[in-house]
## 1
Amino acid sequence: MAMLKKIKERLQKMGKTESVEDVQAEDIQEEVAALPEAEASTTLDEEAMIQAESEEGVIIHDADAEDALEELALRAAEEEKQVAQAEPVEDENAPHNVRSMAEMMAIIEALIFVSEEPLSVKALADVLKEDRGWIETALEGLAEEFNSRNGGLHLREVAGGWQFATRPEHHEHVRAFLKSRPSAKLSLASLETLAVIAYKQPITVPEILEIRGVQSPSAIKTLLDKRLIKACGRKETIGRPMMYGTSKEFLLQFGLKDLSELPSIEDFEDLAGGA
C-alpha cells in the first residue's frame, strides 16, 4: 500500500492531466524489488490495477478551475443572448437606412409637403441617402395610398417632381377663393406672348412679332420677371437674336408634368368653333 501511495504522489507532481502510463516502469520495478516477497506480490497486483485504470486515462480535476470555466460559459451565453435581442429584425423589403417602407413613405410625404417646388426622385434620394429604386417604389405606394382617400388634395408628378395639388373637381371653388385675393395678373398681351412662346419654342422676338403682328418688348420683360420664360441661347442667323422658351415655373403655374400635356391647337379650334 505504501508503494501505491508513492506512485500516486508522484503522479500528482507530474501534473493535473498526466496519465499513469508516463511513470517510468523501471523506477517502479526497482522499488518493488526492494520489498519482501508477499508485499511485492501485493504491490504488483496494485500496480496492475493502476495500469488498467490508466488505459482509460486518469484525470485530476481542479474544482476552482471548473467553477471559473462554468461561470465564463454562462457569462458568454448571456452576452450572446443580449446581442441577439438588441439586433433589429431585418426586413428583406425594407430600404437601407430606414426601418420600414411605411416610415420612408411618411418621411417623403412630409418632405413634399414642406417643399415649395416639386421634389424629384433624385432630390429625395440625396436627402434620405437611399437608392432611387427604393424612392420610386415608396412614391408609387404613397401616391396610391394618398390618392385613394378621395380627399381635396392628390399627389401628382409635376415638372419632373412630385407635389400635392388640389383635385380638378374642386378647381371652381379654389378659383373663386383666389379671385377674392389681390394678385398680379398678366395682361392680355403677356398671355398672348406666353402662348406663342409655349407652342413655338424656342422662338425669337422677331418671330413672335411676325405671329402676333405687334411688338412685344414689355410682354417679354414681364414674363422674364415672373420667371415664366427663360432665354434659350441665340439663333444662328443674321444678328443672332435671343431665343426664348418656357421655364419650370411655367409648368408649376399651369400644373403640367411636361409640355406634352399642353392642349393641342385642335382643342382650341374646337373651343373657338363651339363658342
## 2
Amino acid sequence: MQKIFFAFIALNFAVNSNAGISAGIINNPGYLPFDSTSILQYDLMDINFEMKMSKNNPGDSVPYALVAGGSKGIGYALAEALASRGYNLILIARGLDSLVAAKNKLESSYHVHVEILVNDLSRQESADEISQWCIERNIPLKMLCNVAGFGGARDYLSNLPLDTLRYMVRLNVESAMALSLKLLPLLEKNAPSYILNVASMAGFAPIPVKNMYSATKAAVIFFSYSLRYQLKEKNISVSCLAPGPVFTKPEIIQDTKDRLGKFGMKMAVPPKKVGEIAIRKTLKKRMIIVPGTLAKITSLVIRVLPRRLVTAIYYKAGK
C-alpha cells in the first residue's frame, strides 16, 4: 500500500505542472516569460462583431464563454467543449498565432463565433482592459474560465529570480481573482452563469520543491470554495478544476514513461477529455473536479492523510 501511494505521489509530483514552464526560464534565470508591451487587440473588426451580434437578437443572443489562456492545452480543450455545446467564445492569450489557429479551427469545426484578444494576463491592467472590452459590447457572458498559469519542476529557493516568482503569483492567482471581480457585472446580468477556475492536484498539499506553484494552486482552490458561497445568491456557480497529469506537452509524456511506465500512462488523462469532463461538471454545478479515476483516488488519499506526512513524502520525492 505504501508503494502504491508513493507511486501516486511521485507521478503527481513529476507531471502536475500542467501549464508548464518554458525552457527559457529554466536555462536563463533572469528571463521573464512575458513581454512588457501593452494590450494588443485582434478582434477581426468591431463592425463584424456587431453584425454577428445583431443576427442573434439582443434579447436572445447566443451565450458567450470567456477562456483566459484558451489557445492551447487545457484552455483550448475547455474552449472546444464549450463550442460543441453552442457557446460563442472569447479566447485570451499572449500569442497571436496560436489564438488565430484556435479561432479558425473552432469556427470551422463547430460553426460558432470566436473573438480573440492578445493580452498578457500577468499585467495589472489586463483585467480592466478585458472587462471594458466585454462591457462596451454588452457580451452575453455565461461562463468565465480562468485557465492561465505556469509552473515547473522547481521554483522557490531554486535558481528562479524573484521577478519570475512574482510573475507566477500574478498569473496563477491574481489574474483569476481580478477577472472574476471585473466580469462579475456581466455574469450577474446573464445569470444563471458559471465561473471555472483551473487549479491542480498540486494545490491539495504543500510540495517543498514546488513551493510557490503548490501554494498558488492551493490559493485558487480556497478562493473558489469561498467565492462559490459568496455568489450563491446571485445564481452564479463556481467550480474548480484540479487535474492530475495531463499530457499537454511531449516532454510530459516522456517523463511519465521514464518514471512510472504503464502505471503512469494509465493515470494520465488526455486534454480533450479533461476539457469535456470539466465543462460537463461545471454545468452541473460541481465544486471540485478531478478528471480520471486514479487521479480522484490519489487526490482523496492526499486530502485524507495528515498534511505533515504528505509534505514529507513530497520532500523525499523531490530530493
